[in-house]
Structures are given as structure tokens and as C-alpha cells.
């Protein structure tokens, strides 16, 4: 099995394409099942955030696996794989591991150093575990990625220097109000992890009064109470919009919540002397309907604009330190991976030897029925001991060689020499403990 990453991100695709590719929670299990039902894909993890949609897969062949994954993504996005091709990136084997580690450490995020991607990776891993789509290879990859991400934030200042997408977006919004949000009325639409982060960040910035609305009123009320904000029914959205200057929209809705008609009604009631109504649309699919930004007095900051405007947060020294951690951890994982590749072959070789010994001892028992039980047992111990000694040094050496670059050729050579049939590695029966990270966002994407 080989590792393959196929995905699209803010670097390669516009929000419209990411919206098509986005996998909502209700479709995660079905998408994972479709992936592992493909002929070349045996394991799969899907990561879907506002900034990226990626498939991590264990495949039996590069071209076959790539074709299978692109077919599933195309069907999910309701477009042909050819139409997606210009927006997709592909990483294989070592490059795939390197990419996953960079994602986990925040090096590949829109705001470099943000740590919430760890929670999102953990969520993706749990989805795959629940769907039984992660086998031995992806269990190890995801566990190690979470550890690498946690190590990067523990050993460097990358998270202290970095920002969340919310804080970065609010910095852009503050530019419309002389750089200060203090005393500016604000509304947060959505009470998931992204909405919670929005409320917390606005509260710290001094924005007030602070309003929260959500499809689930109870959740909005709990979030509002935690920060001294006011919860409003979603039905009062237009009225609430007319009273605020800043809106953070981060729901899990599949259709826009801030439609042109809703915003137009709010503008009719709003005093234009207040300045622009700044809408931060940080959801995928979008919460703000296309064309709302064309309305007079409205400023929309969405993921597309964030990708073009936000600056990288951490100092170069912190990013360089994390790069070194990724390089070190990558080599360690590849060493394990090479050893894991040869292990089934070594087991098959020892199994073949045991079968030969068993057959010969059975034949001896038929030819020499006069041997006592003790004599037969002594012969069996002797033969097993000889075979084990003969196999010991070659198997130890092939494991050592397999851990070196290009080591997979030794396992292949053993299989060829001894005509070994090595079965595909089956998924592990239990899931290793998941590394605990920051609370994982339940809506939106990378923060």
C-alpha cells in the first residue's frame, strides 16, 4: 500500500470550487464509503475545512488510486474530474506524508501557525474511524500527524506569532473603522466552534454591544451568556443587521444565510452615516449570497479575499523551526513505513518455512511410526531450531535494509525469490488513543 493525497485548497481553487467539493458532516460517512469501495483505494480519510478539501488514502497503485479519488470527488462536486484537474494537487508517498505534517503544524494554512487545524484533523480521523475507512497505514499517519502538530506548537512560537482566520479577518475589518473595533456593535451568525471563536475575539477587541444568532436558539443563548452578549432568534436577522457594523458569519448551512434580500432590508433601516456594514464570510459553503458585496454601503471579506490580503503571522525563525521538526518527523515516519512494508513479507517467509517443517514432520511420522512421542518431539524442536537460525540473520538484515531509502526493493525481492503471496494489510481492530488538541471546529474550516 502507498500513501496518496489528493486535494484542493485556497492556494489552488476559488471559494466556488471549494464549495462544490466541501463535504458536510451528513455526507462524511457516505463519501468515505464510496472512496474505499473503489478498486485501488483501501483506506481513506477526508479533511474538509473552509480552506481545503483533501483525501488521504492508502492505494495499491498511483494512477489507479488517483483516478478513483478524482472520480469520487467529481461525482460529489457534480462536475467532471477533468474540470477539477486544474484545481487539484497530488502528493505521493514521502511527499504525501510531508504534506500532511505541514497541514498539521499550520505551515500550509492561510494564516501560518494557526492551531485549530489540529482539531479539524482529529475530527476527520474520528469520522474515518467511525466509518471503518482508516486502516493500519492511515491510523499511524493521522496519529503521527497529530503528534507532530502538537510538538510544533509546544516547542516553537509559531502559535503565539500566528493568528486565527477570525482574528486576521477582524483586523481587516478594523481597517474600515480607523483600526479599532472598540465600541462597534457586532453580530455573530452561527454558534459552532467558529462562531464561538468569533464571539471571543470580538469580545476581546471591545466590540459592543455583541449579538449572537443561530438556528439552534439554545446554543446561541449559552454562547451569548458566556460572553455577556445578547442572543436573538434567527428570524430577527434583518433587524439585527440594521443595528450593527460588523458581522461574522460562520454557519454550517448549505445555502446562504445572508441573502441579498435580507441585507437589502437591513440597509433600508440602517443609518448610512454609521459607515459600511462589514460582513466577514468565513464559511464554506458561503453564508453571504453572491452579489451582496455589490450593494452600496456593504463590504464583504470572504475566504477569497483573505487568501489575497492576509499576511503570514509567524516570524521566519518560528516557521523555520517548525520546518525542521517536520523534516525530522518525516524521516522517522518513513523509516517506520519502510519497516512496515517488509513486515508482512517477513511474516509470509516464516509462515512458508513453518508450513514446510510441518509437512516434513508429518511425512516423518508416516515413514517412522516406530519413533516414540519424545523422539518425534525432539526431532521437531531440532528442525524448527535449524530453520529459525537459518532465517534469523536474513530477516534481521532485510528489516535493516528496508528502513533505508529504496528499501522496498528488498521485500519485493524476497517475495519473488520465495514466490510468496503476501495478503493486503487489514485495518487494525482498535484505534490508538487520539492526541487531544484544541476543541475541534464543528462548522466552517481552518481558523
Q: Care to count the β-strands?
A: 10
Order of helical and strand elements: EHHEEHHEHHHHHEHEHEHEHEEHHHH
Q: Cα-atom Rg, whole angstroms? A: 28 Å
Strand content: 5-15%
Helix tally equals: 17
Distance between the termini: 33 Å
**SSE-based structural type:** alpha/beta
Overall geometry comes to elongated
Biggest sheet features: 6 strands, parallel
Q: Could you give the order of strands across the largest sheet?
A: 7-6-5-8-9-10
* Mean pLDDT rating: 86
Helical fraction: 40-55%
The low-confidence runs, each spanning 5 or more residues with pLDDT under 50, are 425-445
Task: Provide key terms for this protein.
single chain; 447 residues; alpha/beta; 17 helices; elongated; disordered C terminus
Could you describe the 3D structure shown?
- The protein has 447 residues and is of the alpha/beta class.
- It is built from 17 helices and ten strands.
- It has helices spanning 15-21, 28-36, 62-77, 81-85, 94-105, 117-130, 136-155, 158-161, 165-174, 193-205, 217-226, 237-241, 260-269, 303-309, 316-367, 373-402, 408-418, and strands spanning 2-9, 41-48, 52-59, 89-92, 186-189, 210-213, 230-232, 246-249, 277-281, 298-302.
- Strands 7-6-5-8-9-10 form a six-stranded parallel sheet. It has a four-stranded antiparallel sheet with strand order 2-3-1-4, sandwiched between helices.
- The longest helix is centred in the C-terminal third of the chain and has 52 residues, at 316-367.
- The chain is elongated, with a radius of gyration of 28 Å.
- The protein starts with a strand and ends in a 29-residue tail after the last helix.
- 44% of the residues are buried.
Amino acid at each position: 500500500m502507498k500513501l496518496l493525497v489528493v486535494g484542493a485548497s485556497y492556494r489552488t481553487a476559488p471559494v466556488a470550487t471549494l464549495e462544490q467539493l466541501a463535504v458536510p458532516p451528513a455526507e462524511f460517512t457516505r463519501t468515505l464509503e464510496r472512496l474505499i469501495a473503489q478498486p485501488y483505494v483501501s483506506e481513506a480519510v477526508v479533511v474538509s475545512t473552509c480552506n481545503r478539501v483533501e483525501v488521504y488514502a492508502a492505494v495499491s497503485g498511483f494512477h489507479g488510486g488517483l483516478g478513483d479519488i478524482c472520480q469520487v470527488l467529481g461525482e460529489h462536486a457534480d462536475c467532471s474530474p477533468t474540470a477539477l484537474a486544474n484545481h487539484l494537487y497530488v502528493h505521493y508517498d514521502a511527499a504525501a506524508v510531508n504534506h500532511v505534517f505541514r497541514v498539521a503544524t499550520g505551515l500550509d494554512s492561510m494564516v501560518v501557525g494557526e492551531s485549530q487545524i489540529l482539531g479539524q484533523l482529529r475530527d476527520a480521523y474520528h469520522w474515518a474511524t467511525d466509518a471503518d475507512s482508516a486502516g493500519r497505514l492511515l491510523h499511524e499517519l493521522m496519529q503521527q500527524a497529530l503528534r507532530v502538530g502538537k510538538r510544533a506548537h509546544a516547542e516553537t512560537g509559531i502559535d503565539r506569532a500566528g493568528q486565527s482566520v477570525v482574528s486576521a479577518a477582524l483586523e481587516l475589518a478594523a481597517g474600515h473603522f480607523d483600526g479599532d473595533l472598540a465600541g462597534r456593535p457586532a453580530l455573530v451568525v452561527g454558534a459552532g466552534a467558529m462562531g464561538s471563536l468569533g464571539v471571543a475575539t470580538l469580545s476581546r477587541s471591545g466590540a459592543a454591544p455583541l449579538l449572537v444568532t443561530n438556528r439552534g436558539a439554545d446554543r446561541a443563548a449559552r454562547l451569548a451568556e458566556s460572553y455577556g452578549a445578547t442572543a436573538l432568534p434567527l428570524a430577527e436577522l434583518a433587524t439585527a443587521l440594521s443595528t450593527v457594523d460588523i458581522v461574522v458569519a460562520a454557519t454550517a448551512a448549505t445555502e446562504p444565510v445572508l441573502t441579498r434580500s435580507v441585507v437589502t432590508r437591513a440597509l433600508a433601516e440602517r443609518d448610512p452615516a454609521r459607515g459600511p456594514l462589514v460582513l466577514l464570510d468565513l464559511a464554506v459553503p458561503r453564508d453571504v449570497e453572491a452579489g451582496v458585496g455589490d450593494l452600496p454601503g456593504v463590504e464583504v471579506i470572504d475566504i477569497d479575499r483573505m487568501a489575497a490580503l492576509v499576511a503570514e503571522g509567524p516570524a521566519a525563525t518560528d516557521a523555520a523551526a517548525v520546518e525542521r521538526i517536520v523534516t525530522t518527523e518525516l524521516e522517522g515516519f518513513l523509516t517506520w513505513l519502510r519497516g512496515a512494508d517488509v513486515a508482512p513479507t517477513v511474516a509470509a517467509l516464516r509462515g512458508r518455512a513453518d508450513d514446510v517443517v510441518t509437512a516434513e514432520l508429518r511425512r516423518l511420522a508416516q515413514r517412522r511410526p516406530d519413533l516414540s512421542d519424545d523422539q518425534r518431539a525432539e526431532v521437531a524442536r531440532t528442525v524448527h531450531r535449524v530453520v529459525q537460525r537459518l532465517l534469523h540473520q536474513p530477516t534481521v538484515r532485510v528489516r535493516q535494509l528496508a528502513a533505508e531509502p529504496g528499501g522496498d526493493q528488498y521485500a519485493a525481492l524476497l517475495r519473488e525469490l520465495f514466490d510468496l503471496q503476501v495478503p493486503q494489510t487489514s485495518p487494525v481492530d482498535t484505534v490508538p488513543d487520539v492526541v487531544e488538541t484544541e476543541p475541534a471546529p464543528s462548522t466552517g474550516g481552518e481558523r
